[in-house]
Design a protein that fits this description.
The complex is a heterodimer of chains A (192) and B (228). Chain A is mainly beta. Chain A has a single domain, classed as AOC barrel-like, CATH 2.40.480. In chain A, strands 1-2-10-9-8-7-6-5-4-3 form a ten-stranded antiparallel β-sheet. Chain B has one domain. Chain B has three helices and eleven strands; from the N terminus they run αββββββαβββββα. The longest helix of chain B has 20 residues. The radius of gyration of chain B is 20 Å and the shape is globular. The mean pLDDT of chain B is 90. The chains are: A mainly beta (192), B alpha+beta (228). At the A-B interface, helix 1, strand 3, strand 4, strand 5 and strand 6 of A face helix 1, strand 3, strand 4, strand 5 and strand 6 of B.
Amino acid sequence: MFKTFIFGIVSGVVIAAGLLYFVPAVDQHREASLISVQANGGNTESFHVNLPHDRIVVGAADKDAIPASLQWPRAAVLGDTQVELFKIRNRNDVVIGVASRISGTGTATGPVLEWALHLPARGTLYANLQPQPDDAGRRSGRLRAGTREFAAMTGSVNERFVRVDTAQDDEVDFEGRIELVTALVGSSERSE
Amino acid sequence: MKYAVPWLAGAVLGVLLFLAGLYYNPIANKLTVSPLAVSRQPLIDLAYSTVPTDAIAFTNNGESRISPYPEKIAELWEPTVRKTTVLVTLFTDSRGQAKGVGVKFASESERTRLLTGHALVDSAWHVYLPESGSLFVDQTENMWSYARNIVLPARWSSADSWRGTWHGITTSGPNALGTARVAGSSGRFADLTTEAVEAVNARAYSALQGPVSATGSLTIAAAEAAAD
């Protein structure tokens, strides 16, 4: 009887250790990556934000905040800094992550426009874009850094705002979308 | 039946002993000395409050004990983001002067191994300091020590709270010395590549609403020109 009890203790320890070892504590939900291969060997992926539904936060001085109860800090140093948070969707219109868009004119930086796209199952992209759009309304920039899946990538990131005419299409219930297109290629230099 | 009852009783005791060993595991002690303490580079210290209601905004899946802030902020309920939190906060320097804003994304990591005391979070900071520049911090944080010393005692307490003084470094990678990877992008940080460490100073925690009194600090090793 006592030997069985001791054997039970050992079994309990082994079962608990085995469960913790083999059963993952965290399992992030994944959506398939919708990537197009480019002729030069890199890849292109497009993300978008449906406005206003995917807007989580807008914070800036002298601007209507989202949500309305958000209190933007009264700090002179922030100047015209604007912080926006969005949910990010893939080509299939499925939310796959969250993103921050920070813009402003700093004394040390001049005009700045940056995105950080956080895709929990894949990694994060950090891009610096030209603050002024070109004639086609597109802002272009470069990937400055990436994590995990994007750690060894370099390339470009383009932003474009597309207004949707809801009067002509009753099925569309959003006012517009921000499109982000990445064109990335593996960097042997970074991966070393 | 003769052997089933003692075996079952032993197995339950074995599981409890194992969990106790895990909780009191001395190897999984917290890191209190910053790996940047021996750095010869100037350090930039950015402080913020980890209390959600002190932040500009905080959101999660809406089912956590820690409520999103402010009211009516969109929650991250979609399957791909429901294990993620986002914090928007004001950064101050060591004298309490506002320096800029930061957005912190934090997602539970699939590399979490409780067996070895690794409760990992993949987090990233998007930092903008108008008088200095902008940068990005990529880090893996180990929240095991924080959970073991603060969150679990608060939940086990009859008052549903924890009070005390706890200081710990949460950054555990991805760099070899347990530091975070930093990439600068504009201003004095343009093209800067360096490392950082994040630490938490906690004084009070409520099992019902999360941190009550706690500050976080992001210490960035910077080149001379960037630190001015």
